[in-house]
Amino acid sequence: MTGPRRANQGGGVQSIERAFDLLELMADAGGEVALSELADASGLPLPTIHRIMRTLVNSGYARQQPSRRYSLGPRLIRLGETAGRSLGSWARPYLAELTEATGETSNLAVLDGDQIVYVAQAPSQHSMRMFTEVGRRVDAHATAVGKALLANLPADTVAQLLGRSGMRPKTERTLTTVPAMQEALEQVRAQGYAIDDGEQEVGVRCYAVAVPGAPAGTAISISGPEGRMTRISTPTIIPLMQRLAGDLSAELKAASHSA
Fold it and tell me: Which class would CATH give 77-258?
C-alpha cells in the first residue's frame, strides 16, 4: 500500500478526506486490510482509524469480517456504477471520433481494484468486429488497457497486483510472469502506448493509451481482428489516441474544478 494521499487543504473537511484516503488504501490492498495495515500506510493513529472505520461500517461503505479485518462495503458498488456511467457519457464523443478515424471498436476502461472494467464503447460498423460488454471485468495483465494503466504504477504495486490476480493465461501469447510484464511495461513507457497482440483473445489486436491525470486509472483503446489492425498506421493513430485522451482529461479536470 502507498502512503497518505493528500495534505489537508483549505476549505476541506479533514475527517472526510481521511475516510476517502482509507477507502483508497483498502482498494490498493485488494479490498481487505487490518487496522494495523491502514495505520502503517496512512500514518494516522489507530484510535482515529478505528473511529473512521466504525463510521464507514455503520453506513455500509465498509464491512468488518469475522477475522476482524475490514473490507470495502456494498454501498460502494452503486456509487461505482453511477460514476462509471457518468465517465462513459463524457468519453463517448471522443470514442466516436476514434472509431470514425479507425473503423474499429473503441473502448474506455478503468482500473478497479485488481481488474479492468469497461465503462463505455463506440462499436465498429464492420460486420466482423470486437464487442466487449460495458461492465465486463477482465484481468489487467492480458489487455492493452491494463498494460497502459499498470505502466503508470510503481513496480512494487504492479508486482503485488499481479501476484493477487495470478496472471492466468488466456491464450498462448499471454504474459504470465511478473518479470515479463515489467519488461513489457518498460516498453509501454518508452513508446507511449500499449499493445495486446492476441493475449486476451486469439486473433484480436488492441492498442491503448492512458488518460493522463484522470481521477482513477483510465485508458482508451481500439480493438479489432488482427488482420485489419495490422494495417492501421500506429504513427498516425497513436498520436490521435493520445490527443483524444488529453482532451478527455482536460474536460474532466475542467468539470471537477467548476463543480
Answer: alpha beta
pLDDT score for 7: 46
pLDDT means per 10 residues, the chain with 259 residues, are 48 78 77 84 88 89 86 72 62 91 92 86 75 81 95 91 91 95 96 94 94 85 89 90 92 66
Output the DSSP codes for the chain.
---------TT--HHHHHHHHHHHHHHHTTSEE-HHHHHHHH---HHHHHHHHHHHHHHTSEEE-TTS-EEE-THHHHHHHHHHHHHHHHHHHHHHHHHHHHSSEEEEEEEETTEEEEEEEE--SSSS-----TT-EEEGGGSHHHHHHHTTS-HHHHHHHHHHH----SSTT---SHHHHHHHHHHHHHHS-EEEESSSSTTEEEEEEE-TT-SS-EEEEEEEEHHHHTTS-HHHHHHHHHHHHHHHHHHHHHHHHH-
What is each CA distance from 125 to 56, 80, 120, 131, 145, in whole angstroms?
46, 30, 16, 11, 22
Q: Where in the chain is the domain with CATH 1.10.10.10?
A: 14-73
Determine contact, residues 75/65, Cβ cutoff 8 Å.
Answer: no
What is the fold, at CATH topology level, of the domain defined by 14-73? Answer: Arc Repressor Mutant, subunit A (1.10.10)
* pTM tops 0.85, yes or no: no
CATH 3.30.450.40 domain span(s) along the chain: 77-258
